[in-house]
From TrEMBL:
Name under which the protein is recorded: Protein BUD31 homolog
Record-linked InterPro entries: BUD31, BUD31/G10-rel_CS
Gene: LOC107580314
Localisation per UniProt entry: Nucleus
Keywords from the named record: Nucleus
Protein's organism: Sinocyclocheilus grahami
Length: 146
């Protein structure tokens, strides 16, 4: 995992309130990604999915603080984006209707699929066969369309 690079500029007010939670989420990501380096290919893929899920939790935490709970300032929100704690493009999609639970940007890119469509996890569960378990090949999501 690449280390988050901090700028020389001091963080804005309110940073000391969210820093422990962000550090805890970073620590959980490190534990999951470096726990056993000699693993099989399927286990490595599973670890990358777990890492992706924990990364999404960190971005979702910042999104909820700013847009849902209005607990942090715009200056602190922009600082988190600039420092790499959150993904600006994913948050922009979460603000749009129908993309509130989007797991990653690769799932909506049509160039990554064979027929120029979205990922299977974007298909509503009501439109799939009963009992069929779906899983995204990119991130391991089991249905983020709702």
């Amino acid at each position: 995992m690449p280390k988050v690079k901090r700028s020389r500029k001091p963080p804005p007010d309110g940073w000391e309130l969210i820093e422990p939670t962000l550090d805890e989420l970073d620590q959980k990501m490190r534990e999951g990604s470096f726990s056993n380096l000699q693993t099989s290919v399927s286990q490595k893929a599973n670890k990358s999915i777990v890492y992706h899920g924990r990364l999404i939790k960190r971005i979702r935490y910042i999104f909820d603080l700013f847009y849902k709970r209005k607990a942090i300032s715009r200056e602190l929100y922009e600082y988190c984006i600039k420092e790499g704690y959150a993904d600006k493009n994913l948050i922009a999609k979460w603000k749009k209707q129908g993309y509130e639970n989007l797991c990653c940007l690769r799932c909506i890119q049509t160039r990554d699929t064979n027929f120029g469509t979205n990922c299977i996890c974007r298909v509503p569960k009501g439109k799939l066969e009963v009992g069929r378990i779906i899983e995204c090949t990119h991130c391991g999501c089991r249905g983020c369309s709702g």
